Amino acid sequence: MSEKQKKPQKLKARLPRGFVDRDAADIRAVNEMTARIREVYERYGFDPVETPLMEYTDALGKFLPDSDRPNEGVFSLQDDDDQWMSLRYDLTAPLARHVAENFNEIQLPYRTYRAGYVFRNEKPGPGRFRQFMQFDADTVGAAGVQADAEMCMMFADTMEALGIKRGDYVIRVNNRKVLDGVLEAIGLGGEDNAGARLTVLRAIDKLDKFGPEGVRLLLGEGRKDESGDFTKGARLNADQIEKVLFFVGIKDYAQSAADLAKLVEGSARGSEGVEELNQIGHLVTSAGYRPDRIKIDPSVVRGLEYYTGPVFEAELQFAVTNEKGEKVVFGSVGGGGRYDGLVSRFMGQPVPATGFSIGVSRLMTALKNLGKLGQSEVVAPVLVTVMDGDIESMGRYQRFTQELRAAGIRAEMYQGNWKKFGNQLKYADRRNAPIAIIQGGDERAEGVVQIKDLIEGKRLSGEIEDNTSWREARVAQVSVPEAEFVAKVREILEAQAEDRARAV
Fold this sequence. Notes:
Helix content: 40-55%
Radius of gyration: 30 Å
C-alpha cells in the first residue's frame, strides 16, 4: 500500500495530567458558592478587581514555589521580546503588581476581592491539580492588626454564609513574627539562613498532612513518601527540632503564652508577634467571635515566604472518608496573612497589606459532603418539537421557542433528525425535559399547539400497558390556542415545582 493510500491516524483525545473538565453540575455549584462568598465580601465593603492569567515572571520573583528557575513550579514561556511570562501561581502577587502600577490612582486602604484560576507546575496527585480556582480578599494600605482581625472575622462569616455551622469550622491564627523569633532563638536568624528558614516553614506547614513525626523527619534529614520520592529536610539538630515542635504543638495559647514568651525571649521581632496575637485575640473577642470560631494556634505557618506577620487558616473539623476508606478531618480550605513586603518591592517604600484566599474546588468538595450545594433547582429546557421541515414551519417553531425564552422559560428547538418523531421524545427523556411542545399540520390549521407534560406522562405511563391505548389516550397532553401556550407552559412548570417540593 502506498503512502497516499494509508489511512491517516486519528488524533488521540487526551486530557493533560493534573487538569480536569468541569460539567454543568460542577459549574453551577461553583457559581452558587462564589455568589454567597461575594455577598459577604461586598457586605464588608470590598470591591471586585480582575488581573490577567499571565504575569511577567519577575513580577512573581523570588516568591516562586520552589526556586527562581523560570519554569520551576510555574508554567512559563518566552514572549517575542525574550521576556519570560508565567501563568499566575496565586492571585496575591498579581494584585501586588496591580497596586504598584496604579498606586497614584488607588484609594488606600484598597479593599478588594477577586476569583480566578491559578496554575502550579507541580506533581499532580489525588485531589491535587495543576489548575484550580481561588477566591481572594485583600486590604492594602492598612498597617494595624485590626485589618488582620477583620480578615479573620470575614473568613468566619463566609464559612457560615456557605452553611457550615459553628463547630464544623475554625479560623486558626498565628504570627510569622513569633515563628521568626523561635527560629532566631534556635540559631536560624539572619540572611544566611533564609533558605533553611523557608525549609522549616514548609515542613511545619505539612503538620496536618504528615503529623508531628512526619514533620520531625522534614525538620531533620528528610522524608520519603509512599511513592519513594524523597524530600530533603532542614537538617536541624535534636534540640532545635524539639523547640520547633513545642512551638507548633501548643494547643491552648492562654495556658502556654508564658512558655512561648520565654522561648522568644531576646527577640524583638518574636515579642512583637506575641503582642500582635494578643491584640487580634482582644479585637475578635470584643466583636463577639469566640475561640470556637477564631482561635490563636501556633501550628499555623502558611508555606509561602512572603508572609510577614499574622497568618490565618480556615479549617473544617468534620470527618470525611479519604481514598483509603479512612475517616479523617477534612482540614484546610483556605488561608492567608500579612504580606507587607510584596507590594513594597515594586515601590521602594513600605506598603502594608493583608488578605486571605479560599480554595474554591476544595471547599466545594466539603460543601457537597455536607449537602450544602446543589440545592438550587435547575429545570431542563422545554423542548419545542419539529413536525414539518419546511422553512415556514421551522420559522413558526423558532418563534415558539423565542416566546418561551422571552418569558424567562428555558427552551430549545429540536435540532436533530426531525423526521423520526420518536427520536425527539427519546431526546426529551434523556434531557429530562419537563414539557414538549407539538404542532403538526392539523394543529397549525386550527391555530393551536399541543403541550405534553412529560413528567406527569412518566408517572401515568405505568397505568397504561397497551401501546395503542397509550397513543389514543394522549396522556398528560392538552391543546391550547397559540396565544395562550406560554401561560399554560408556565402553569404546568409551577405545578411540577410544587409536586417536587411536596416530595422533598
